[in-house]
Amino acid sequence: MNTTAPKLGAIDLNLLVVFDAIMRDRSVTRAGQRLGLSQPAMSHALTRLRHMLKDELFVRSPNGMMPTPRAEQLATPIRIALDGLQESLEPVRFDPVEATATFRVAVDNYAAIVLVAPIAAHVSRIAPGVTLDFRPSGTLNVPELLDRSELHLAIGPSSAHGERFSLRRLLQDQFVVVHRKGHPAAKAREFSTEKLAALPQLEISSAQFGPEFVETGPGRPKSAPKPAMRAPFLSAAQILATSDLVSVLPLNVARNLTRSHHLVFRRLSRSPKPIEATMMWLRRLDNQPAHAWLRDVISNVTQGLHSS
């Protein structure tokens, strides 16, 4: 087997761009559409890649073009190299008024409900040519997509994913009890854990921001009461407005609901563990002008949403 690496001067950069596109799309056809190349041109480029790297690289399967172990090994270094080259060709400053960039952002349920609308509204005002592509993160492998530059950043709960990522906490939100106006239990200004446990509760089945109740006695943890009903978030406001069910939700989610429905919220005398929204991105993009602009915009927008 020939193990001699190809000389850098003999490598056609366009072939690496083709490799990266097929790696992203798992399809020669879709990769060609991404690059504006015909099917014969893509097939010819793939043949040259295989000859140059002495490996099949991609194998057809029912799920598309599956990368070989060698292709998997090459994917991240090639993506980093292409990103670095692209960044070196970009202006040293980012002008949002003139920019026509697209940013792909993964968001969890909390961020989708609370943060996406104000971020989108602000960006549309100050950067009319910028496109925001928000993607639900629930079924995504976020670290892998960040590594492959298929996402620019992600907003969700804080978690450790390795030193290659940077994190910035955007928001910490307390939980409150939401119920209809005129609810029999509405006289109190706040709810105790015991009072809450005695009420029929609605649990949001489509969201991952359920409260984690803290212990209520010496050495005796208190778990969340069993819900009387589970329903998707899209149904929650109407259910709460037309029943005696209550729901424990983050404060900023509750504020959104009470603006458009006959609902109110009350504080908990002992709040569950707060929910956090954290921004995560590749550390190597810390000083990239367009990326830094987006992060600052998101941070500034969320400043006005902090729980009071």
From TrEMBL:
InterPro entries: LysR-type_TF, LysR_HTH_N, LysR_subst-bd, WH-like_DNA-bd_sf, WH_DNA-bd_sf, YidZ_PBP2. Residues 11-68 form the HTH lysR-type domain. The keyword Transcription applies. GO terms for molecular function: DNA binding; DNA-binding transcription factor activity. Keywords: DNA-binding, Nodulation, Transcription, Transcription regulation. SUPFAM superfamilies: Periplasmic binding protein-like II (SSF53850), Winged helix' DNA-binding domain (SSF46785). NodD regulates the expression of the nodABCFE genes which encode other nodulation proteins. NodD is also a negative regulator of its own expression. Binds flavonoids as inducers. Belongs to the LysR transcriptional regulatory family. This is DNA-binding transcriptional regulator, LysR family. It comes from Bradyrhizobium lablabi. The lineage of its organism: Bacteria, Pseudomonadati, Pseudomonadota, Alphaproteobacteria, Hyphomicrobiales.
